[in-house]
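In response to the reviewer comment on reproducibility (Comment 2.3), we provide here a single inverse folding case reported in full, input and output, so that an independent group could reproduce the run without further information from us. The structure tokens appear first.
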């Protein structure tokens, strides 16, 4: 088989796997793209050794994972690539394309507990106060009103940035204290909206027409082909706001606000299962990271503020 035919064969079988992930498991576009990249990377690796991803054996997978570690790739990224391979070969086995799984007995790279970046409640208050002050300025007032609305929703509801930018206008037409969000795996959940966020939405809806030609169905409409503001632009706007607020821009992103939402809830005594539901986590183990974050922050507070903490015993 020539190299070009091998590449076409690999590409075709990967596409079949991605089609299954989309149709049967409801994988998001971002997840499919990540799987596609990871599988293509492995396919290229085995092709350079004269093999194919379809017929790769245990030794080829093990050698590939070892090469990732040797290249300095983060353990979390190594584990993600191995996970993609596990699911891919499980698919080939289930389809009868292979009679074995070459990823069996290959251990995932050890991952240390990486705590998410967190903003303090005061940092968030400063960001919101700064965003609100910007709306009072005559120049670019509509854009400031939109940004305030985005920040309020992110912190009040804990949405992922992809969920925020694709939030349909219909999701906020009522005055309920929650919104329906369609998240990963096309699963729908209810996310909370406090009074401040609802007020920000009401103010933004008065100027929303400035950002659309009237055809967009999204809350954060745009004249771009997608019909909504992009995730990248959302990141940029938050970085700009951080600079104005005197907050380290490296500490701020839509996902950091999601982390702040969850951590501040846990610090306030919220039930972990409730936080899991609001975040849309399939596994509560993912949510438990916030108990560690809250615990670490509590220790730091005690160590810096308690009069006995500084005394040696």
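Designed residues, in position order:
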């Amino acid at each position: 088989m020539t190299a070009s035919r091998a590449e076409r064969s690999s590409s075709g079988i990967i596409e079949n796997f991605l089609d299954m992930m989309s149709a049967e498991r409801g994988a998001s576009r971002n997840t499919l793209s990540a799987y596609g990249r990871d599988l293509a990377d492995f396919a290229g690796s085995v092709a350079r050794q004269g093999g194919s991803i379809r017929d790769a054996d245990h030794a080829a997978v093990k050698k590939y994972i070892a090469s990732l570690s040797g290249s300095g790739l983060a353990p979390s990224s190594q584990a993600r690539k191995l996970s993609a391979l596990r699911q891919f070969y499980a698919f080939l086995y289930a389809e009868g394309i292979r009679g074995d799984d070459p990823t069996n007995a290959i251990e995932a790279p050890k991952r240390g507990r990486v705590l998410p970046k967190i903003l303090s409640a005061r940092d968030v208050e400063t960001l919101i106060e700064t965003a609100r002050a910007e709306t009072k300025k005559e120049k670019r007032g509509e854009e400031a009103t939109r940004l305030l609305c985005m920040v309020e929703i992110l912190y009040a509801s804990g949405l992922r940035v992809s969920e925020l930018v694709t939030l349909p206008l219909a999701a906020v037409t009522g005055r309920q204290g929650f919104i329906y969000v369609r998240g990963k795996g096309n699963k729908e959940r209810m996310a909370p909206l406090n009074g401040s966020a609802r007020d920000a939405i009401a103010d933004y809806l008065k100027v929303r027409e400035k950002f659309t030609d009237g055809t967009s169905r999204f809350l954060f409409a745009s004249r771009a082909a997608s019909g909504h503001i992009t995730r990248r632009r959302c990141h940029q706007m938050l970085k700009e706001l951080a600079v104005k607020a005197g907050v380290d821009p490296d500490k701020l992103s839509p996902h950091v606000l999601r982390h702040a939402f969850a951590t501040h809830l846990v610090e306030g005594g919220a039930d972990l299962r409730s936080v899991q539901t609001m975040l849309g986590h399939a596994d509560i183990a993912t949510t438990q990271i916030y108990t560690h974050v809250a615990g670490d922050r509590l220790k730091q507070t005690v160590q810096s503020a308690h009069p006995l903490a500084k005394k040696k015993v």
